[in-house]
Design brief:
alpha/beta, Rossmann fold, UDP-N-acetylmuramoyl-L-alanine:D-glutamate ligase, Protein-Tyrosine Phosphatase, Chain A, six-stranded parallel β-sheet, five-stranded mixed β-sheet, 16 helices, 15 strands
Length: 431
């Protein structure tokens, strides 16, 4: 659905967060004949705001609903709008409809101008998208990093035709995707967002839409160590390009910690090779790229004890990857948070076998139970200031304290950023 299709239509913007506000701005500036209703579970300070009941009442079979990706499809008010016959779309779909070039020939090696690159995966997509954008920028390309990181893509509709877009794409955005990017990258597939998707199969299916929707003109780049992605590559219409952690000297330039980051950098290398970016430029860009905040970030050293902020870690697998990086000197780990029903048994066995001090944040009861079952002793201290003081009193010099919660932050903290910032504040206060 393109912007022209919204002319003279009633358009309901459902959800007024980042994406809803971006949709509002674009409609006001580029589709002046659209009749706009803004609705949200919370009252918003905008003239077009109507409460959900009024918005549902106004919905007909001619209505277009631009739904924010964070709103689950099983919400009652979403189902009522569907029952009224409304046509649903998203800012991502509108962006792709406006920007994707209608090629009659496949994407060729070295072709980069105007290319749309979508990057997804359970973990690592923010860092990988940022790294890829950094490499392209260093190669002198006009590039915009958007999507689930930074600004919504729709806010950049007016960028010049030669702009390369690197879009971090979440499963929420992919679930109702109708047009695929020119280059689709899937880094990995683990368990995540069960409260939104319902089960692992539905979550993985949402992720794989990024390639399932591609045409013969497109390219699918995937991590071949995941059997689901190997199977996906066999059925898609697009050209396929596998990658995995490999012995490539260009990857030695990466300064990011962990094999998982090296593996994701191999995915970046696969894309930049296809775009014919000089390897010397790629290696310099790899060397100059810095880790994003709250991802294996050293935030302080007190009494020779290093504190590592990995607040962005929201799954057991991500915590295991972090432990792999610091295992030799790991003295303490902070786990727990919003319960999404994950299986913590492997993580619990790992920390119990290592014998590290294991602190449990609020709502981490299931993590604690798993640790006890594995023979460990969880420490039920959820206040970060108290945890830092306990670490300083009990860990020997040259140890590491790792905040890698393996769970979302909701409940005790607003988001992973607040969780990481409070950890940093606690360290700064104790120094």
């Amino acid at each position: 659905m393109r912007l022209a299709d919204l002319s003279n239509k009633l358009v309901i913007i459902l959800g007024f967060g980042r994406e809803g506000k971006a949709a509002y701005d674009v409609l006001k500036s580029r589709v002046p004949t659209a009749r706009i209703i803004v609705t949200d579970e919370q009252k918003m300070n905008v003239a077009e705001f109507r409460d959900l009941v009024d918005a549902i009442t106004a919905t007909t079979a001619e209505t277009i609903v631009i739904k924010s990706p964070g709103i689950p499809w099983h919400r009652a008010y979403v189902e009522e709008m569907q029952n009224a016959g409304a046509h649903f779309t998203s800012t991502t779909n509108v962006f792709f409809a406006e920007r994707k070039r209608m090629r009659t020939l496949p994407l060729t090696k070295g072709e980069s101008e105007g290319v749309l690159i979508g990057v997804t995966g359970t973990k690592g997509k923010s860092t990988t998208s940022s790294l890829l954008a950094h490499v392209l920028h260093e190669a002198g390309k006009r590039v915009v990093l958007a999507g689930n990181i930074g600004e919504p893509a729709i806010a950049h509709l007016d960028e010049p035709d030669d702009t390369i877009f690197v879009l971090e794409m979440s499963s929420y955005q992919l679930l109702d995707l109708t047009i695929a990017p020119d280059i689709a990258v899937i880094l990995n597939l683990y368990e995540e967002h069960m409260d939104y998707h319902g089960d692992v199969a539905s979550y993985h299916a949402a992720k794989m839409r990024i390639a399932d929707l591609q045409t013969a003109n497109d390219l699918f780049v995937y991590n071949e160590k995941f059997p689901q992605l190997v199977d996906l590559a066999k059925r898609v219409k697009s050209k396929t390009l596998p990658f995995a952690l490999r012995d490539d000297k260009s990857l030695d330039a990466i300064t990011l910690l962990g094999d998982h980051n090296r593996e994701n950098a191999a995915g970046v290398l696969a894309v930049t090779d296809e775009l014919d970016i000089d390897r010397a430029i790629v290696e310099r860009a790899f060397a100059s790229f810095k880790s994003l905040p709250h991802r294996l970030q050293e935030v302080g050293v007190i009494n020779d004890i290093r504190f590592i902020n990995d607040s962005f870690c929201t799954t057991p697998h991500a915590a295991l990857a972090a432990i792999d990086v610091f295992e030799r000197d790991l003295g303490a780990i902070i786990l727990g948070g919003h319960d999404r029903g994950y299986d913590f048994s492997e993580l619990a066995q790992r920390v119990s076998d290592l014998g590290v001090r294991t602190y449990i944040l609020q709502n981490g009861n299931r993590v604690a139970e798993a640790i006890r079952a594995a023979g460990g002793t969880p420490i039920m201290i959820s206040d970060l200031d108290e945890i830092v003081h306990d670490v300083l009193a009990n860990l020997p010099p040259n140890s590491i304290c790792l905040l890698s919660p393996a769970s979302p932050s909701f409940g005790q903290f607003k988001n992973f950023v607040e969780r990481g910032e409070q950890f940093f504040a606690a360290i700064k206060s104790a120094a």
